[in-house]
Amino acid sequence: MFESFRVETKQRTGLVDITDDIVACIRTSKVKHGLACVYCPHTTAAITINENCDPSVQTDITNILSKLIPQNAGYAHSEGNADAHAKAAVIGSSRMLFIEDGKPVLGRWQGVFLCEFDGPRTREVRVKICKE
Questions:
Q1: Is the pTM of this model over 0.85?
Q2: DSSP-based three-state secondary structure for 25
Q3: Residues pairing with 76 in the sheet
Q4: First-last CA distance in the chain
Q5: How many CA atoms lie within 13 A of 89 on its CB side?
Q6: Model pLDDT for residues 30-48, shown as the tens digit of each residue
Q7: 30/8 Cα distance (integer angstroms)
Q8: Going by C-beta distance under 8 Å and a sequence separation of 6 or more, which residues neighbour residue 94?
Q9: Per-residue pLDDT tens over the stretch 78-105
C-alpha cells in the first residue's frame, strides 16, 4: 500500500516543495528505519531533490530546462506539451529516500520537489514506505 497526496500547481513550469508532505507520510507510517519511494504518476511532471533554501535555485533549474528543451521547437507530438514530456523524462518520475529515526535523510539544504512542466494542474504524489 502507499500514501498519496495532491499538489495544486499554479503555473506552467515550476518546482513545488513537497518535503513536509513526505515527512507527514513517513510520520503516519510510523516506520523509524527504512525507505520511502516518492513517485509521480504523471508524464509531464517529475520528482527531484535539490536546494530548498534559496528559491533562485528553483528558478535557475526551470530556466535552464526551458533553454535546453524549449516549449515550441517543432516537436512531432502535437498537443503543445511535448517539451513537458521531455523535461519530465530527463528529471525522472521518482526518488528514493532513506528513513532514519522516522525522518527522511536529506542534506542540510535539500528538499523534495514536484516539478511541474505542464500546469497549472492538480498532481498526485505517491509515497511507498518500506521498513528496514
A1: yes
A2: helix
A3: none
A4: 16
A5: 7
A6: 999 999 999 999 999 999 9
A7: 27
A8: 37, 38, 39, 40, 47
A9: 899 999 999 999 999 999 999 999 999 9
